[in-house]
Design brief:
about 230 residues, alpha/beta, Rossmann fold
């Protein structure tokens, strides 16, 4: 249902103006809700934003940290260049199972792999396997671990690749140094590291809409990491 606040109203208006009805995406939301998954996926306009970013850089290898019900994975999977792949990491087996059903219904079961397990462990394994390099990484998992997720993302992304980190504003709490919210504190640690990270050029944007007051970081990887993740001179 549309919210009573003006930004939610505008969000729904923009969805009506700029996006057509999509049975697979609507089914993914319905299946996820029926299974009791939290309604914390990206909004339709945010999903299309990710889709256009991936298409714009002609991404062939995409990494997603945080699958939930696979809604954003559908947006990203549809944007991948021919013969490309999306690897999505999810800690909860129940969420992963629902996501796989949603991805199969969207015709993406051969494009998207959902790997189950704690993301920090899986990311370390990917580095040992020399996975990637990825063209685009979308970070949308537990916020206290955002600094670590971002560090691994940079190590696994090619120079010229993009990293999107979602939910960095936290209703404005990220700017409150006295906040006790674990997510806000994790994002403050992330932004403090990002400020002096020589491997990337980054910016952040606030957003309002059906997801409330939040925002994201967009980072361009500018330096190439070495085999172990260290930056090459």
């Amino acid at each position: 249902m549309p919210g009573t606040d003006p930004w939610s109203h505008v969000d729904h208006y923009l969805e009506e103006m700029l996006q057509t009805t999509d049975p697979a995406l609507e089914s993914a939301l319905a299946r996820s809700a029926a299974a009791g998954l939290p309604s914390i996926q990206v909004s339709p306009t945010q999903g299309k934003f990710l889709h256009l970013l991936a298409r714009g850089i002609r991404a062939r290898a995409v990494l997603e940290i945080g699958t939930l019900g696979g809604y954003s994975a559908i947006w990203l999977g549809r944007a991948i260049a021919p013969e490309g792949r999306l690897l999505s990491l999810e800690v909860a087996p129940k969420h992963a199972a629902i996501a796989r059903e949603n991805l199969a219904e969207a015709g993406l079961h051969e494009v998207v792999e959902v790997r189950v397990g704690p993301a920090l462990e899986t990311l370390e394994l990917l580095a040992r396997e020399s996975a990637g390099p990825f063209d685009l990484v979308f970070v949308d998992a537990d916020k206290p671990s955002t600094p670590e997720y971002f560090d691994w993302s940079v190590r696994l992304t090619r120079p010229g690749g993009l990293i999107v980190v979602d939910n960095v504003v936290r209703r404005g709490e990220v700017a409150d140094e006295t906040s006790t919210d674990p997510g806000a504190r994790g994002n403050r640690r992330f932004l403090e590291r990002l400020r002096s990270d020589p491997r990337v050029s980054a910016t952040a944007l606030q957003t309002v809409g059906t997801k409330g007051h939040d925002g994201f970081v967009l980072a361009l990887v500018t330096e190439s990491p070495g085999p172990s993740g260290a930056v090459r001179a």
